[in-house]
């Protein structure tokens, strides 16, 4: 048996053994005073303060749910063997310092398996090629999470290599965990690449999660799994020790069940990082004094000017459930004081939405090789040290790995590039012009606080310019498949978007937990 599989099976046995030996099967009876389903950060913190729940109990509960549901959902690649210890430490700190009011203290969080942790967890982008690699330090966002006392529960599954290896691989598929499953309708896409983070949040496998986005990888899975996703302005959160695609577009953000929880996470992870100094220094000017929590305003829609982008985005029939629901939402937004400017168009929308025409494909393919090779060079140890090594690894194991059915055409295209040449620089300049003449001009001329589109259809417009967006649950179609609504804005517009998204969420209360009906047998004791 190849060494790859010895490592794989050894690790899988370790996780299963840890779960089965360490966890009580039924936890609901032990902690019956606390309702774990759809638990929020605030409800958990209230339970901590009343001593009706400890962080260690919470972690054990989530680990038991993962044990029960993850074989079906494939949302988690691995759990942290030190998670219970971290939680117990948080409980002890709370005893010693009862006035600690940090919202994420003792709260379990799952990280997309692209976000580096200097601990016993792997960071592999869902690929066996990086299994056993060791990061030299915690990623910038993880360092901030540890500082506020969050518990790193484990790594969430994802579209392998952030869906940047093959154009034909399914959303949510990676070699290490298999195909991620939408918890609402198994046949529906979980979308990607932060699929596991969204699935885990939606299915209540954890309190909160982190994802990453280059173009749609937070907004799309959030919409597809009926959760909230915040794609921050590029540079607002550090990309240090995070497996990259494009430093020009990559950003890290929360995926949670509520806007409030997502804002708590955002507050914890934003800020300057010496290891990502240029981007985080430039974006630091956008961070409001006192953080983002103060923008959780029930009346946040009042007086907001919101532009509806119809053409190229609302691509469903007038009689569909989605069309009817969105019109209801727009009516409600107006009743809550928003001014909606309808049928707006961004110049050259069709060009921007075409990866090839906009220059996004050319630029990201070239940027990936440079950025990945730089990341791999920083690892303390690794089976691969370059994109070329990764390609060779995949070729060597192609008979053993199902993912080889999907090939690695994007990798091969990236490897054939030679740095950021004049063609790539022209492509980057073209995207800057498209952004300036497009969304920036529209929003400034119409004095908009936000634009609104369904699902993640606006992701390329936000992606190429480094702009923020927030996806909120919007509804479910006739089959029960979720869909979302995305509010987008210019760099630094997070406060406005949070006000709008939170007020919309509170006015609509769309989200409901998945029932899993017809998917698989759920053990009722959980």
Explain what the structure shows.
- The chain is α/β, with parallel strands linked by helices and 526 residues long.
- The chain has one domain (3-508): Amidase signature (AS) enzymes.
- The protein contains 19 helices and 13 strands.
- The chain has helices at residues 3-22, 41-50, 55-73, 83-96, 140-147, 160-163, 195-202, 219-224, 259-269, 277-283, 321-335, 349-352, 355-358, 360-377, 387-396, 409-415, 422-445, 459-465, 494-508; strands at 76-79, 108-112, 151-156, 173-174, 178-179, 208-213, 228-231, 251-256, 305-309, 339-344, 450-454, 469-476, 482-488.
- A hairpin with a 5-residue loop joins β12 (469-476) and β13.
- α1 crosses α3 (55-73) and α14 (360-377) crosses α17 (422-445).
Features:
eleven-stranded mixed sheet, globular, 526 residues, alpha/beta
Task: Please provide a brief summary of the model.
With 526 residues, the chain is an alpha/beta fold. The protein has helices at 3-22, 41-50, 55-73, 83-96, 140-147, 160-163, 195-202, 219-224, 259-269, 277-283, 321-335, 349-352, 355-358, 360-377, 387-396, 409-415, 422-445, 459-465, 494-508, and strands spanning 76-79, 108-112, 151-156, 173-174, 178-179, 208-213, 228-231, 251-256, 305-309, 339-344, 450-454, 469-476, 482-488. Mean pLDDT is 92; it is low at 1-29 and 522-526.
How is the topology of this model organized?
Blueprint (H helix, E strand, L loop, with lengths): L2 H20 L18 H10 L4 H19 L2 E4 L3 H14 L11 E5 L27 H8 L3 E6 L3 H4 L9 E2 L3 E2 L15 H8 L5 E6 L5 H6 L3 E4 L19 E6 L2 H11 L7 H7 L21 E5 L11 H15 L3 E6 L4 H4 L2 H4 L1 H18 L9 H10 L12 H7 L6 H24 L4 E5 L4 H7 L3 E8 L5 E7 L5 H15 L18
Parallel strand pairs: 2-3, 2-6, 9-10, 9-11
Antiparallel strand pairs: 1-3, 4-5, 6-8, 7-8, 7-12, 11-13, 12-13
Helix pairs in contact: 1-3, 3-4, 14-16, 14-17
InterPro entries: Amidase_dom, AS_sf
Protein name: Glutamyl-tRNA(Gln) amidotransferase subunit A
Keywords: Signal
């Amino acid at each position: 048996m190849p060494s790859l599989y010895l490592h794989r099976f050894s690790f899988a046995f370790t996780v299963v053994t840890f779960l089965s030996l360490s966890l009580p099967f039924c936890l609901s009876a032990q902690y019956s005073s606390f309702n774990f389903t759809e638990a929020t950060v605030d409800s958990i913190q209230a339970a901590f303060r009343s001593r009706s729940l400890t962080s260690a109990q919470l972690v054990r509960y989530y680990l038991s749910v993962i044990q029960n549901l993850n074989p079906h959902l494939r949302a988690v690649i691995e759990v942290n063997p030190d998670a219970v210890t971290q939680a117990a430490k948080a409980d002890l700190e709370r005893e010693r310092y009862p006035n600690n009011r940090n919202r994420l203290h003792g709260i379990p969080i799952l990280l997309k398996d692209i976000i580096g942790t200097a601990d016993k967890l792997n960071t592999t982008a869902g690929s066996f090629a990086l299994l056993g690699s060791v990061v030299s330090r915690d990623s910038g966002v993880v360092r901030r999470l540890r500082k506020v006392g969050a518990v790193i529960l484990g790594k969430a599954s994802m579209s392998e290599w952030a869906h940047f290896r093959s154009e034909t691989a399914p959303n949510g598929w990676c070699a290490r965990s298999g195909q991620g499953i939408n918890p609402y309708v198994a046949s529906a896409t979980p979308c990607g690449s932060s699929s596991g983070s969204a699935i885990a949040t939606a299915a209540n496998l954890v309190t909160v999660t982190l994802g990453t986005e280059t173009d749609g990888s937070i907004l799309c899975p959030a919409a597809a799994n009926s959760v909230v996703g915040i794609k921050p302005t590029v540079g607002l959160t550090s990309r240090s020790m995070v497996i990259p695609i494009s430093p020009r577009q990559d950003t890290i953000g929360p995926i949670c069940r509520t806007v409030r929880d997502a804002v708590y996470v955002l507050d914890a992870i934003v800020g300057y990082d010496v290891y990502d100094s240029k981007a985080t220094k430039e974006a630091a000017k956008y961070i409001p004094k006192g953080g983002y929590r103060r923008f959780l305003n029930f009346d946040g829609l009042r007086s907001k000017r919101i532009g509806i982008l119809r053409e190229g985005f609302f691509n469903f029939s007038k009689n569909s459930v989605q069309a009817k629901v969105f019109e209801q939402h727009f009516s409600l937004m107006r009743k809550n004081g928003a001014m909606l400017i309808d049928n707006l168009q961004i110049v050259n929308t069709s060009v921007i939405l075409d990866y090839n025409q906009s220059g996004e494909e050319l630029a990201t393919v070239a940027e990936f090789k440079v950025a990945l090779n730089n990341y791999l060079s920083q690892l303390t140890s690794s089976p691969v040290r370059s994109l070329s090594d990764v390609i060779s690894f995949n070729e060597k194991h192609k008979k053993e790995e199902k993912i080889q059915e999907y090939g690695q055409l994007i990798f091969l295209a990236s490897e054939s590039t030679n740095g950021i040449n004049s063609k790539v620089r022209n492509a980057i300049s073209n995207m800057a012009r498209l952004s300036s003449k497009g969304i920036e001009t529209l929003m400034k001329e119409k004095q908009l606080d936000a634009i609104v589109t369904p699902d993640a259809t606006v992701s390329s417009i936000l992606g190429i310019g480094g702009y923020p967006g927030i996806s909120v649950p919007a509804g479910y179609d006739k089959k029960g498949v979720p869909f979302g609504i995305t509010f987008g804005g210019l760099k630094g517009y997070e406060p406005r978007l949070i006000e709008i998204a939170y007020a919309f969420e509170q006015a609509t209360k769309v989200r409901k937990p998945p029932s899993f009906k017809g998917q698989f047998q759920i053990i009722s004791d959980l």
